[in-house]
Amino acid sequence: MSTTYEQVQDELRATPRNWLITGVAGFIGSHLLEKLLRLDQEVLGVDNFASGHRKNLAEVQTAVKPVQWSRFKLIEGDIADPELCERACARASTVLHQAALGSVPASMIDPLAAHRSNVTGCLNVLMAAKQAGAARVVFASSSAVYGDDEQLPKVEAKIGNPLSPYAATKWMDEVYADVFARAFGLQSIGLRYFNVFGPRQDPNGSYAAVIPKWISALLKHEPVYINGDGQTTRDFCHVENVVQANLLAATTSDPEAVNQVYNVALGQRTTLNDLFYTLCEIIHGPEAAREKPIYREFRAGDIAHSLADISKARKHLVFEPTQRLDSGLRLSMDWYRRNIS
Question: Which of 13, 115, 291, 315 could staple 280 via S-S, CB 3.0–4.6 A?
Fold first, then answer.
């Protein structure tokens, strides 16, 4: 018996849609693009390449058939431009809004830039989708909205005070989406991503996510730094699970599922120490015991512990992660070995 996700894919192949992906050249955006093109969909993408990479699009082009790639069109530009958003949304029936400045530390340094991209940009997308008559907007939120709420696991109905400008911007996106549903009838679904990882996640730069940064360091035999004592926990989620959640959210016909936010995670807590030694074992095998991290001060704006309750997504979206942490890391390693010099 096929799963709901498999049924959704069969339905999309039978009845293709016009999709818009913002942030299409980014880590998650490029995976969404690849999946939709493999399903023979028509896709328009927007990216200003502030954090996305043309090489991600080149990888997608290599991964799909030429006829599938021909169904993709790119608009290079910034979602902070309302006219660009109007042009991008003109033919889209479904919008997957991924574009953002997705860094807590960067938002601490430049809150205005985070607001411009994450709040003004999201508002422009919502406005354009409403005006174009799009059926639904699925947008990327973040586990950062839970802020100083100490409850574990995190449930969607209870959030705390934001601990960074980035967290505040993502919370505002959820507020605006709710307002547009109530005031204008625009259907939307927000996905609170927990620590997403996988191929194409950039290991470079000061604000790189922990998994690609550590993989890069271990492959190069460089020091690995842990902020704090290593007992900090995260709910790591492979990008394949995120793609699944987006497609389920975009296609659900359950009226109770719409105009909601959902945790997208594995529902499993891992300490940074455990993550470090798991990566060491995968990369270095028997030599892993020799590896030791370097501990340093806890980073401002970060939360101490993160664990998602994904029962709401399971119930309303029929979301079921297919990649666990260990399998997802092993699935990602070939890409990192090829791309880390």
Answer: 291
Could you give phi then psi for residue 273, rounded to 5 degrees? -60, -45
Active site annotation includes 262: no
In a domain, 56, yes or no: yes
- What is the model's pLDDT at position 298? 87
Report residue 211 as tokens: 């998994």
Q: Check residues 300 and 285 and name the one with the higher pLDDT.
A: 285
CATH number at 186 reads 3.40.50.720
Contact 267, 307 (CB under 8 A): yes
pLDDT of residue 304: 82
As given in the structure block, the two tokens for residue 79 are 């979602």
- What pLDDT sits at residue 24? 98
Please give the DSSP secondary-structure letter assigned to residue 50.
Answer: S
* C-alpha of 177 from chain center: 17
Relative orientation angle of helices 210-219 and 272-284, to the nearest 10 degrees:
40
State the residue for tokens 């092993």: 330
- Please report, rounded to a whole number, the percentage of residues in the chain having pLDDT higher than 90: 89
Q: Give the confidence band of 102 by pLDDT, cuts at 50, 70, 90.
A: confident
Residue 222 buriedness (CB in 10 A; 0-12 / 13-18 / 19+): exposed
Domain extent for 123: 4-195+237-267+308-322
What DSSP letter does each residue of 73-84 carry, written as one string?
EEEES-TT-HHH
Q: How many CA atoms lie within 13 A of 20 on its CB side?
A: 30
Residue 207's pLDDT is 61
Strand partners, 262: 191
Residue spans of beta strands (DSSP E) within 163-322: 188-193, 196-197, 225-227, 233-234, 237-238, 260-264, 270-271, 294-296
Candidates 134, 103, 108, 131; CA nearest to 118 is 103
What pLDDT shows up at residue 303? Answer: 74
Q: Which two tokens stand for residue 77?
A: 């530009």
The answer to whether position 168 is within a domain reads: yes
Report the alpha-carbon distance of residue 237 to residue 209 in Å, rounded.
12
